């Protein structure tokens, strides 16, 4: 049997704390940002005291993360809505949820980032509230979000740097300051790159049609795949780049998706080789 030395239970728990106590949106954002990471949230303990709620999250690697008490229940308002959305997102990601009644000073220690080893031990021994009521905190419309996939709309938009072509790195860093300019600069760079590689003095869709029809291509087995990739460049410019050049810059909720499409074009261009090399791979 392991002996526990005196005073050990009073030592700091040494876990991570996210969110700002009393700030509902900040605490909801903390949950959503964690769900965007690669370490899955496996277990959620909802800590409840007199209509105030905090969360203790356990990851797949058994790391503990506390979310401070920006959540509430028992009335209509920002706090209950934030709790509903947070639980909705956690359920959608497959987390197991249990609710535990705690004293108000326990919530205070979460908010002060001051949980002790004894606090965690006490919580591990505490019975969860039965019958389970945490699902009642999810508002009816948010229940539908889980079933029909609408929860994705509340997730934060983030730039996935790990999958970006390195030539778009500078544009990606300044993307949120001016998405329109980042896209325009990216399109211009792609044109310049293909123009240089192909030796053609063309622009826009015409450049890509000619460049990928006799000068550049991909060493893939199926001719249809090569044609599909080639058409993608010209069609993307006609569908996205050309309209962008003829309208005033402004808010654009689809800008990040368009940037990722542009990134895919850069990745495909990087894989393209001189047509002589393509000819070595015949159709299947």
Draw up the topology in text:
Elements: E1 16-18, H1 24-35, E2 41-49, E3 52-59, E4 64-72, H2 78-92, E5 96-101, H3 104-111, H4 117-125, H5 140-148, H6 169-173, H7 179-198, H8 204-211, E6 216-217, H9 223-245, H10 255-271, E7 273-274, H11 275-278
Parallel strand pairs: 1-4, 2-5
Antiparallel strand pairs: 2-3, 3-4, 6-7
Helix pairs in contact: 1-2, 2-5, 7-8, 7-9, 7-10, 8-9, 9-10
How does this model look, in words?
This protein has two domains: 8-154, no CATH class; 161-278, no CATH class. Mean pLDDT is 91; it is low at 1-6. The protein is elongated, with a radius of gyration of 26 Å. The protein has helices spanning 24-35, 78-92, 104-111, 117-125, 140-148, 169-173, 179-198, 204-211, 223-245, 255-271, 275-278; strands at 16-18, 41-49, 52-59, 64-72, 96-101, 216-217, 273-274. It has eleven helices and seven strands. It has 284 residues and is of the alpha/beta class. The strands form two sheets. A five-stranded mixed beta sheet has the order 1-4-3-2-5, with helices on both faces. The chain has a two-stranded antiparallel sheet with strand order 6-7. It is 46% helix and 14% strand.
Structure, briefly:
This protein is α/β, with parallel strands linked by helices and 284 residues long. It has helices spanning 24-35, 78-92, 104-111, 117-125, 140-148, 169-173, 179-198, 204-211, 223-245, 255-271, 275-278; strands spanning 16-18, 41-49, 52-59, 64-72, 96-101, 216-217, 273-274.
Q: Notable features of this structure?
A:
284 residues, alpha/beta, two-stranded antiparallel sheet, 11 helices, 7 strands, 46% helix
């Amino acid at each position: 049997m392991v002996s526990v030395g005196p005073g050990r239970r009073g030592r700091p728990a040494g876990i991570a704390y996210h969110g700002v106590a009393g700030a509902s949106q900040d605490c909801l954002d903390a949950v959503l940002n964690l769900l965007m990471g690669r370490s899955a949230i496996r277990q959620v303990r909802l800590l409840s005291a007199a209509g105030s709620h905090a969360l203790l999250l356990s990851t797949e690697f058994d790391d503990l993360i506390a979310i401070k008490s920006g959540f509430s229940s028992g009335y209509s308002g920002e706090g209950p809505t934030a709790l509903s959305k947070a639980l909705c997102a956690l359920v959608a990601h497959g987390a197991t949820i249990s609710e535990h009644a705690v004293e108000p000073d326990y919530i205070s220690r979460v908010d002060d980032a001051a949980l002790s080893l004894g606090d965690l031990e006490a919580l591990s021994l505490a019975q969860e509230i039965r019958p389970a009521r945490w699902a009642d905190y999810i508002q009816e419309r948010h229940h539908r979000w889980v079933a029909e996939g609408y929860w994705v709309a509340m997730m934060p938009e983030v730039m996935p740097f790990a999958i970006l072509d390195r030539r778009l790195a500078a544009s990606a860093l300044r993307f949120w300051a001016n998405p329109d300019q980042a896209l325009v600069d990216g399109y211009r760079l792609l044109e310049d790159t293909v123009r240089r590689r192909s030796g053609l003095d063309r622009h826009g869709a015409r450049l890509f049609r000619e460049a990928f029809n006799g000068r550049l291509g991909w060493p893939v087995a199926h001719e249809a795949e090569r044609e599909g990739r080639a058409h993608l460049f010209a069609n993307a410019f006609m569908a996205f780049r050309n309209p962008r050049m003829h309208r005033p810059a402004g808010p654009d909720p689809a800008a990040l998706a368009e940037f990722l499409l542009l990134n895919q074009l850069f990745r495909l261009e990087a894989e393209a080789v001189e047509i002589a090399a393509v000819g070595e791979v015949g159709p299947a």
